[in-house]
Amino acid sequence: MNGNWQLFDRMISASGAQLRLNASVASIALASSEKPARYKLETESTEALSDGETEELAYFDYIVLATPYQFSGIKVGDDVLQHSVDEIPYVKLHVTAFTSPFSLHSGFFHLPPASEVPSLVLTTLGEDEVTGDPGAGKAGFFSISTHKMVTNPKTGLPEHLYKILSAEEITPKFLSALLGVRVPGTFTGQPEDYPQMVEPVSWIHAHAFRAYPKAYPRVTFQDPILGDGLYYTSGMESFVSTMETNALMGMNVARLILDDVTEKQEDMQTEARSSQEYLDGKRLKTEPMEEL
Questions:
Q1: pLDDT in tens, 1-49
Q2: 73 exposure class (CB count in 10 Å sphere: 0-12, 13-18, 19+)
Q3: 53 with 196, same domain?
Q4: Count of domains in the chain?
Q5: Are residues 134 and 65 in the same domain?
Q6: Which residue of 23, 115, 130, 163 is 20 to 30 Å from 253, comparing CA positions?
Q7: CB neighbours of 92 closer than 8 A, spacing ≥ 6?
Q8: Of 173, 191, 213, which one is at a domain's C-terminal end?
Q9: What's the pLDDT tens digit per position in 176-192?
Q10: What's 76's DSSP letter?
Q11: What whole-number percentage of the chain has pLDDT above 70?
Q12: CA 128 – CA 139 distance, rounded (Å)
């Protein structure tokens, strides 16, 4: 109800892990033979470093890269990656949320005047259109949804909260056609040629991000094991990019780490038993036999 970010917030709380905000991993390198750990991590603050503040070093046996490697900016030392990391082609998605006292204009959707426009409109490419950039076709958007009614704190009047998903930035011209009323170049504010009119858009927020991968035919997928003790959950992103599926990938990687730890413990126990049996056998041979 309040966002799927809560999945990971609860996971972190339940794990008891040390959470370091405003910090990022700068580099990963193999640890020297003097250290018992496999890897050396260098972290840095994302905030401005104060005088005398330096990056920190940390050592780990296991590392999980849980972010798309191509955007991470992490420097990787020699011999760290035993498998290459695929670069994933993402769709750049523009998300625009805005509020307006005006309903969606029926004429924009080629409906009869005063017709009720559906609260959710999804688009597909026309028969004469092909998939490609920008990808939304002549409709100009992927979806337009009416989320709920809200109250404008300045006027005290009800307004619609809309969200648009599109392949390109939403323009005042587009919103003018969508609402059937002139939207100024600044988006918010009263149009100059209609000084007495209420604001057609009272609030707007736009954000662009790489939301999901472009679906190309493929026969292989990213190996989640990049090296000895080095794992990668974001290889899942070449197939589907959601928080929920990455959580499942994290569960699978956790199982791989558990299996590796268990196998190493069993190997150590087997080696210890073999060493003990060897020593016991050697003592039997060297100790004199009791006289009858």
A1: 577 788 888 888 998 888 888 888 999 999 988 778 899 999 888 765 5
A2: exposed
A3: no
A4: 2
A5: no
A6: 23
A7: 167, 208, 209, 210, 211
A8: 213
A9: 999 999 999 999 887 77
A10: E
A11: 87
A12: 13
